[in-house]
Amino acid sequence: MGGWLAPSATIGRAPAALVHDLGKPLGIVELLALRLQERAREPALVQSDARTIAALAGEMRACLRGLLGAADPDADAAGETALDALIERAIRRVAHGCEAARVAVRLAPGLPRLRAGGDELVRVLANLVDNALRASAPEGEVRVLGIQAAAGLCIEVSDRGCGMHAGIAARAFEPFFTTRSASEGSGLGLAICRDLVGALGGSIELASAPGGGTRVRVTLPLPQRARKPLFQQKKKNPLGA
Fold first, then answer.
1. 118 Cβ contact list (under 8 Å, min separation 6)
2. How many CB atoms lie within 10 A of CB 67?
3. What does residue 163 show for φ and ψ, rounded to 5 degrees?
4. How far apart are CA 197 and CA 151, in angstroms?
């Protein structure tokens, strides 16, 4: 087996998902911490790196909080969260500096705020953005598009990378399936996304072609509008009728 044991044979799925989700932000924290000494004479850069480390620590805490089902701190008093804030968190979790600048976000105006699942959606989008960045050329752009459609709130993450042929794309959501080496990927990212999106009542689709890049679309149900009361008090007629 080439020294590689299937993760399912050694650790449970939930711990494996936790390792997967925390791996990238921990890697960025390690990189920034290692170069702090090199930047000792550049206070502005040190402060910038320190802020990034603090933000990533917050994201990792949010990831753990999400696994415990705790409330989303970005939600307002009504329990609603803006999509742009969640996308910003997702990008920050997996990209830094020039890599983050490669992600172009385009959101349609007037998108509804989300009433639940903020932390879960951040995990989904972080996985999708990370995959797209890895699949792209070093200067390649990754696009995140948000629109409202008849089916619900749609979020697309697309890249112009190498793409996948049909056989690989058909297995993309299988747990522990990956075309990367053992040191580069666990094969859990898209499986985690599928489970999280399903728990939110949504769907996830992948379209890819060799040389044509990959597009992943997440569709979430729109927040329910306030229901009218079953019985409304009849207004009195000022004329006494």
1. 72, 74, 75, 81, 86
2. 15
3. 75, -175
4. 14
Total residue count of the chain as it appears in this document: 241
Q: How far apart are CA 176 and CA 178, in angstroms?
A: 6
The one-letter code for the residue type at 176 is: F
pTM above 0.85, yes or no: no
CATH number of 11-220: 3.30.565.10
Please give, one letter per residue, the 3-state secondary structure of the chain.
Answer: CCCCCCHHHCCCHHHHHHHHHHHHHHHHHHHHHHHCCCCCCCHHHHHHHHHHHHHHHHHHHHHHHHHCCCCCCCCCCCCCECHHHHHHHHHHHHCCCHHHHCEEEEECCCCCCECCCHHHHHHHHHHHHHHHHHHCCCCCCEEEEEEEECCEEEEEEEECCCCCCHHHHHCCCCCCCCCCCCCCCCCCHHHHHHHHHHHCCCEEEEEECCCCCEEEEEEECCCCCCCCCCCCCCCCCCCCC
**Bridge partner residues of 146 (DSSP):** 107, 155
For 12-54, write each residue's pLDDT tens digit: 455 556 666 676 677 777 777 777 777 777 888 777 777 777 7
Domain ranges of the chain: 11-220
Interatomic CA distance for residues 146 and 132, integer angstroms: 16
Q: Tens of pLDDT along 200-234?
A: 999 999 999 999 999 999 999 987 653 333 334 44
- 201 C-beta neighbours (distance < 10 Å), count: 12
Angstrom distances, CA of residue 11 to CA of 21, 69, 94, 235: 15, 22, 24, 64
Contact 147, 110 (CB under 8 A): no
Q: Say how many C-beta atoms besides its own lie within 10 A of residue 236's C-beta.
A: 8
